[in-house]
Amino acid sequence: MAQWNQLQQLETRYLEQLYHLYSDSFPMELRQFLAPWIESQDWAYAANKESHATLVFHNLLGEIDQQYSRFLQENNVLYQHNLRRIKQHLQSKYLEKPMEIARIVARCLWEEQRLLQTATTAQQDGQAAHPTGTVVTEKQQILEHNLQDIRKRVQDMEQKMKMLENLQDDFDFNYKTLKSAGELSQDLNGNSQAAATRQKMAQLEQMLCALDQLRRQIVTEMAGLLQAMDFVQKNLTDEELADWKRRQQIACIGGPPNICLDRLETWITSLAESQLQIRQQIKKLEELQQKVSYKGDPIVQHRPALEEKIVDLFRNLMKSAFVVERQPCMPMHPDRPLVIKTGVQFTNKVRLLVKFPELNYQLKIKVCIDKESGDVAAIRGSRKFNILGTNTKVMNMEESNNGSLSAEFKHLTLREQRCGNGGRTNSDVSEFYLTSFSFFRSLQTHSLPVVVISNICQMPNAWASILWYNMLTNHPKNVNFFTKPPVATWDQVAEVLSWQFSSTTKRGLTIEQLNTLAEKLLGPCVNYSGCQITWAKFCKENMAGKGFSFWVWLDNIIDLVKKYILALWNEGYIMGFISKERERAILSPKPPGTFLLRFSESSKEGGITFTWVEKDISGKTQIQSVEPYTKQQLNSMSFAEIIMGYKIMDATNILVSPLVYLFPEIPKEEAFGKYCRPEAQPDCCSLTHSRKTTCNIPARWKIYSNVLCSFLYSGGDRNQRLSTSQI
After folding, report:
1. Is 213 helix (H, G, I), strand (E, B) or coil?
2. Residue 123 has pLDDT above 70, yes or no
3. What 8-state DSSP symbol labels residue 259?
4. Main-chain dihedrals φ then ψ at residue 343, nearest 5 degrees
């Protein structure tokens, strides 16, 4: 099956990721119109060889013309218009640079393959019970059909129970009538009765035979009905509910948002109602048996097993239906759930997926540290905690918008227990205590394991622990996971890293950006797919030539993006992660003044810089860059304003801006002007020296420009960019 056709069958959550791959640079309509031809071309080769890229690009225009002719014959005006517009756009943008469109198409195809691989792997690992949209729909339809069948069989059983009761009442009446008249001997087969009596006895025996036959039919059908319930229940709890829990895990670490529980609640409530009806019918059998019983009575033989089965089914269904709807999370850090700081408020919410009004305000729930986790912690000598705040609530239907039975805990905090010697236990930042919460009365459920920290500076490594755990396991109570952390593949890590951006911004990471990160983690490689990464490599060990780990560096960049350059990132203006070799390769052919924005590789705290093209006196192309701007500088001035006001001293001692076009060819004013304050642009000037490092000076300092210039050139450090505060 063609790759594009396979993609169309993916589940909705994967299709949403597919939609993000395409833009005006390479429209999805064109991908669909020419799917077979596009997949038959070697775009990766064209991306690196201009002559082949030119050939493929002209062939692409030819394919568009052919497709246009087909739409013309079909009189499809809308598609004709769209295809004509697409062709004009491609010609105007890529006719002189066919390698660029080749790179874009190659990246899209690679991302598609990775998406298909992710969906396939998820299916094989049981992380997603439904790999494609078609299968999901069919399974849900089958499930709903089975639930309808169970409801119908339960109602049919109700009618048969009424028939049984009526038949038994008739038999009981006739039997007692004969007995009271003294016409019955000690057994029903007596030979001393008169002919009329024998006729009545024969009728009574026929009634007993019919009664026995109906009883046997009912217990047999009831056993089959319980088997059907067991099958549907396993489908609900082992597949649908387990799939929801896995998606909740993925959503916790930045993945696609989880679907709501309403449909599951409807299914589980329907099954629970049917089970309660059957339970009442089994009790009714017991009542009928107590009134009339005989040798070989099928109710006596089978009712205990039926009752045990239905009680077991209902108990297990209720246990499975009690879930953590919202995992523990500090309100101040909503994008990083499952990390709890001692003494800081956190919230969570539980829900019973059985919508019985009679349970409203009947279930009292308590949240506490899981006892099993506490015992393990005590054995290891780890930290132990108490929960403070309102940790007991009654489940009700008023706290939710849809009337579901739930309890939300909004005011909980953790306090660390003192050690036996009166001091505190070891709280080394590199060791985190994993535990989980239990919500119970007669029911019990667990949150995902949480990481408890005592200082907010521990947040980066704590979050890395949450990522690693939920990426690699769906076990809710594996508190010893980090005694020997399993390795991850680059494909798993790449997806999670992209989620860290897409979950808090409008953009994830592109294949080129991910390849740059892979190189930092694993070194140069032709294909990173399948390469293994250890927990230590990801979070503990310093990167080559650096004094900090990969995760510490990346986490600070994520923080930089969210707090200081979010709008520019969302616009796609920041190339971000790019190797210096790749940077030089794409900038060198560009005209002077073309620049790109990338993250610093040397700044532990997270920095962003820009690199531009210029010509020296001899006309030779040079690639220049500025020292990274960190959060400290961006606190005083936005990055857009820094770019707009950045100037250097040219050979004639005139201040000029070396930044003209944002790569590939977006005018600087068009890209960044809208993000500058109106008063900032005329009121700011920049000073620099020959090493292209600048000092941004507000308007109130302008009168001292000459003095400051003299100071900088005569005695200033030429390798140091000065900030306003230093001046």
Report:
1. helix
2. no
3. P
4. 80, 0
CA distances, 217 to each of 137, 161, 250, 309, 313 (Å): 35, 11, 48, 18, 22
What is the Cα–Cα distance from 112 to 6, expressed in whole angstroms? 10
Helices (H), 41-186: 43-46, 50-73, 77-94, 98-125, 133-180
CB within 8 Å of 261: residues ≥ 6 apart: 244, 323, 325, 351, 353, 404
Coil/strand/helix, residue 266: helix
What value, to the nearest 5°, has the Cα angle with vertex 50 and ends 44 and 52? Answer: 65
Q: Could you give the CA distance from residue 19 to residue 351 in angstroms, rounded to a whole number?
A: 33
The burial class, CB within 10 Å (0-12 / 13-18 / 19+), for 368 is middle
User: Is the distance from CB of 333 to CB of 339 less than 8 angstroms?
Assistant: yes
Average pLDDT, rounded, for the chain: 81
Overall pTM > 0.85: no
Q: What is the pLDDT of residue 453?
A: 92
Q: In which region does residue 254 sit, left (phi positive, over 0), alpha (psi from -120 to 50) or beta (all else)?
A: left
Q: Quote the CA–CA distance of 323 and 444 in Å, as a whole number.
A: 9
Q: Would you state the pLDDT for residue 262?
A: 87
Q: Tell me, what's the pLDDT at 724?
A: 25
DSSP 3-state assignment of 432? coil
Distance CA(126)–CA(474), nearest Å, equals 10
- With contact defined as beta carbons under 8 Å apart, do 291 and 168 qualify? yes
Q: What letter does residue 722 receive in the DSSP assignment? A: P
Q: pLDDT class for 475, splitting at 50, 70, 90? A: confident
Cβ-contact 361, 396 below 8 angstroms: yes
Q: Taking the CA of residue 352 as centre, how many other CA atoms within 13 Å lie in the half-sphere pointing to its CB?
A: 32
